[in-house]
Amino acid sequence: MGRPRILFLDAYDSFSNNITSLLTTLLGADVFVLPIDDPLLGTHPGGHHYDGDDGGADDNKDASSLSHGERRARFVAELKRYDAVVCGPGPGNPDTEADVGLVRHVWQLADDELLPVFGVCLGFQSLVSAHGGQVRRLRRGLHGMVREIHHREGGGGVEGDVFAGVRRFNATLYHSLCGDIGQDEVGEGEWEAARWRPSARCPDLVPLAWVEEEREQGEEKERILMAVKHRTKPFWGVQYHPESVCTDEEGNKVILNWFREAQKWNREKGRVALSEGHELARAATKPSLLSQLKLRPTEQDAPRWWELLETNPTLHSLMVPLPAGVQVPDIVEAVDSGCAERIVLDSANAAPASSRADVRGRYSIIAAKLDESLHVEYHVGDPYATIKIRSLGGSSVNLSEKIPLEPSGGVWGLLAAFHEKRRVPAAEPAHTPFVGGFMGYITYEQGLSDIGICLGQDRSHHRPDVSLAWVTKSIIVDHLQQVIHVQQLRSGHLETTDTWIDKTAAKLRALQDSPRRPSFNLSAVPPSLSTVGTRRPSMSASIKPPQTKEYEAKVKTCQEYIAAGESYELCLTDQTTITRPISDVWTQLAPANPLPSSPRKLQQKQRFQSQHNGAFLNSPISSSSSSSSSSSSSSSSWSLFKRLRKHQPAPFASYLRLGPATLVSASPERFLTYDRAGRCSMRPMKGTVRKSDEVATLAQAERILHVPKEEAENLMIVDLVRHDLHGVCGAGRVTVPDLLKVEEYQSVFQMITVVEGQLPPRPDGHGGQEETGPYTGLDVLAASLPPGSMTGAPKKRSCEILREIEGHNERGLYSGVVGYMCATGRGDWSVTIRSLFRWDDEQVVVNTEDGPETHEVWRIGAGGAVTILSTPEGEREEMFTKLAGPLRIFGEDPCRW
Ligand SMILES: C=C(O[C@@H]1C=C(C(=O)O)C=C[C@H]1O)C(=O)O
Ligand SMILES: NC(=O)CC[C@H](N)C(=O)O
Question: Which CATH superfamily is domain 5-284 in?
Answer without folding.
Answer: Class I glutamine amidotransferase (GATase) domain (3.40.50.880)
